[in-house]
Design goal:
By secondary structure, the protein is of the alpha/beta class. The chain has a domain of 165 residues: Aspartate Aminotransferase, domain 2 (3-Layer(aba) Sandwich), CATH 3.40.640. Helix content is 35%, strand content 12%. Strands 1-7-6-5-4-2-3 form a seven-stranded mixed β-sheet, with helices on both faces. Helix 3 packs parallel to helix 11.
C-alpha cells in the first residue's frame, strides 16, 4: 500500500471505529474520568507502563483522534492538544526551559506571541532574545550556553516573511538545541511541513485555519521525534523526574525505546498538562476535527 494522501489523512488518520456502536463519526466523550479494568490496570496507566485514559485533563478519546490526526498531517510522531495557541507555546517552552534559561526568537511574530515572550516568560525567569527579523546571523549571534531553543513562524504574522528554515535549522543543530516552528499559517501541514525543513517541534493555533469556522479555540504541540533530548542540555529529560516518581523520560521514551522518540510529547502531557492544566474540551476537539475534514 502506498503512502496515504493528505486528503485521506484529513478524513481518517487517528480514528478507529467505536468498538461498541460502530459509529462512523468520531464520538464526543464528554467525561472527566474513566474506569479501570482492575487495580493493576490503573496502576499501570498511572505508571506509564501502558497508555490509556485516566482523566480528561491528561487524555480523552475524542481529543486523542485530533492529536493523532494532526501528528499524521504534519509528519510528527505524537501530538498534545491544548486550549489555545498561546497555551501550546507555553506548554512547549515550559517543557524545555526553566528560570535562568533563554530562547532566541524571530522578531516577526504574532502580537500575542510577542507579548507572551516579552512579558509573561520574563516573569517566569525565561529570557526571550529577539533577533533582527529572521536574519540567520542575528539569530546565531544571540545563542549562548543557556539557550534552549530557536523559535520561528512559518509565515510571520503580520510581516508575511518566510524564514530560511534550512539555514536556521543548521544553526540550531550546531548548537544542539531544537527548532520550534509555529505553523499556524501552514494550514495543518498543507502549505508547509516544517519537519521537512529541519524543525523539531511544530505548534499551531488550531483556532485559525484548522478549526476554520470561528466556533472553537484550540492549540496543538507536535513532536517531530527527531531531536536528542539526552544530549546533556535538557536535564528535565535525561535525569530522574522529581514530579514523576524518578522517571527518566529520555531513557523510557527517547530514541531506541519501544515507543519511538516521543519523550517531548509525553513529558508535555504527563507533567505539562497535569501541572499547568491548559487542556481542551472534547467538544472543542470534535469541532476542530470537523474543521480538518
Amino acid at each position: 500500500m502506498g503512502k496515504e494522501h493528505f486528503e485521506t489523512l484529513q478524513l481518517h488518520a487517528g480514528q478507529e471505529s467505536d468498538p461498541v456502536t460502530g459509529a462512523r463519526a468520531v464520538p464526543i466523550y464528554q467525561t472527566t474520568a474513566f474506569t479501570f479494568k482492575s487495580a493493576e490496570h490503573g496502576a499501570n496507566l498511572f505508571g506509564l507502563k501502558e497508555f490509556g485514559n485516566i482523566y480528561t485533563r491528561l487524555m480523552n478519546p475524542t481529543t486523542d483522534v485530533f492529536e493523532k490526526r494532526m501528528a499524521a498531517l504534519e509528519g510528527g510522531v505524537a501530538a498534545v492538544a491544548t486550549s489555545s495557541g498561546q497555551a501550546a507555546q507555553l506548554l512547549a517552552i515550559h517543557n524545555l526551559a526553566e528560570a535562568g534559561d533563554n530562547i532566541v526568537s524571530s522578531s516577526f511574530l504574532y502580537g500575542g506571541t510577542y507579548n507572551q515572550f516579552k512579558v509573561a516568560f520574563k516573569r517566569m525567569g525565561i529570557d526571550v532574545r529577539f533577533a533582527d527579523g529572521d536574519n540567520v546571523d542575528s539569530i546565531a549571534s544571540l545563542i549562548d550556553e543557556k539557550t534552549k531553543a530557536i523559535y520561528l513562524e512559518t509565515i510571520g504574522n503580520p510581516e508575511y516573511n518566510i524564514p530560511d528554515f534550512e539555514a536556521i535549522a543548521q544553526v540550531a543543530k550546531a548548537n544542539q538545541i531544537p527548532l520550534i516552528v509555529d505553523n499556524t499559517f501552514g494550514q495543518g501541514g498543507y502549505l508547509c511541513n516544517p519537519f521537512e525543513w529541519g524543525a523539531n517541534i511544530v505548534l499551531h493555533s488550531a483556532t485559525k485555519w484548522i478549526g476554520g469556522h470561528g466556533t472553537s479555540m484550540g492549540g496543538v504541540v507536535i513532536d517531530g521525534g527527531n531531536f536528542n533530548w539526552g544530549n546533556g542540555k535538557f536535564p528535565m529529560f535525561s535525569e530522574p523526574s522529581e514530579g514523576y516518581h524518578g522517571l527518566n523520560f529520555w531513557e523510557t521514551f527517547g530514541e531506541g525505546s519501544p515507543f519511538g522518540n516521543i519523550a517531548f510529547a509525553i513529558r508535555c502531557r504527563v507533567e505539562g498538562l497535569r501541572d499547568l492544566g491548559p487542556v481542551n474540551s472534547p467538544f472543542n476537539t470534535f469541532l476542530l476535527l470537523q474543521g480538518i475534514e
